[in-house]
Write a structure and sequence with these properties.
The protein is α/β, with parallel strands linked by helices. It folds into three domains: 35 residues; 69 residues, Ubiquitin-like (UB roll) (Roll); 137 residues, Rossmann fold (3-Layer(aba) Sandwich). It is built from five helices and twelve strands. One of its GO terms (biological process) is cell division.
Length: 252
């Protein structure tokens, strides 16, 4: 019995010694990191929505963040991600005295302008990613004819799965062909009209979408500068007639 007790006691002492050594090692490493790794250089990547100073002040927000190791560990253990239009931040050590803060922006496909002055931004899945009073001028497409009564981030646009698929497919095709409109407008039948500076393109439903865009691409050079509506809503393999209806000028 005495031998067993001695063995247990020796095992406990060995574990205590190991733990103490680890703690001592961590303390030594911490002291070395504090004195040897002062943070002097901060780079910011991934966004032009905020200045480098704004991002640095947001991430390095306490007196201990002047240390490279501390800044890295803090933002790994307690990441910040509640900034407008930013999904997450990654802090990377690039040297003993330098870090890079990578801003991962929220994906945005388009936006809806609300009557209260807010903008509802949504992604390729039709999910709302941001609600903000700030307008981001990046050529995102505006969507009209869609109303969100009580919008929340994460909520899907109230247009139905089929229409979300139609909208996202349409925008991808328009982006691919570099003919993004100023506005995509929905009517009461969920038919879409594309609005450009001087003319509109009435697409109607999603039937024959790619064929409609292909025909529009061939016709657009002929109507450049004209005011009116290119009607493609009735286009089909049986009905290939396409009409450009010029706007009538009202003379007072």
């Amino acid at each position: 019995m005495s031998r067993r007790r001695k063995n247990r006691k020796s095992h406990v002492l060995a574990i205590i010694e190991i733990l103490f050594s680890l703690i001592l090692l961590l303390v030594i490493l911490g002291v070395l990191a504090y004195f040897l790794c002062p943070l002097t250089d901060v780079a910011v990547e991934g966004t032009d929505l905020y200045t480098s100073d704004q991002v640095s002040e947001y991430i390095l927000d306490d007196k201990y963040s002047t240390n490279t190791i501390y800044a890295f560990l803090k933002n790994k253990l307690f990441p910040k991600g509640d900034a407008e239009f930013i999904e997450s931040f990654d802090v990377k050590i690039t040297g003993m005295h330098s870090i890079t803060i990578v801003c991962n922006e929220k994906p945005i496909l388009g936006y809806i302008s609300e009557e209260d002055g807010n903008y509802i931004y949504f992604n390729y899945d039709g999910s709302i990613t941001e609600i903000s009073a700030s307008y981001i001028d990046r050529g995102y497409m505006q969507v009209e004819g869609v109303t969100c009564e009580e919008p929340e981030v994460g909520m899907t646009l109230p247009i139905g799965d089929d229409q979300i698929g139609y909208l996202t497919s349409l925008i991808k095709i328009l982006q691919k062909n570099d003919i993004m409109p100023n506005v995509v407008s929905y009517d009461e039948n969920s038919h879409i009209t594309l609005k450009y500076d001087t003319y509109n393109i009435s697409l109607g439903s999603s039937v024959y979408l790619e064929e409609k865009i292909d025909r529009a691409l061939k016709i657009l050079p002929q109507i450049e500068g004209l005011q009116g509506t290119l009607h493609l809503e009735n286009y089909s393999t049986q009905n290939t007639d396409i009409v450009f209806e010029k706007d009538t000028e009202v003379v007072e």
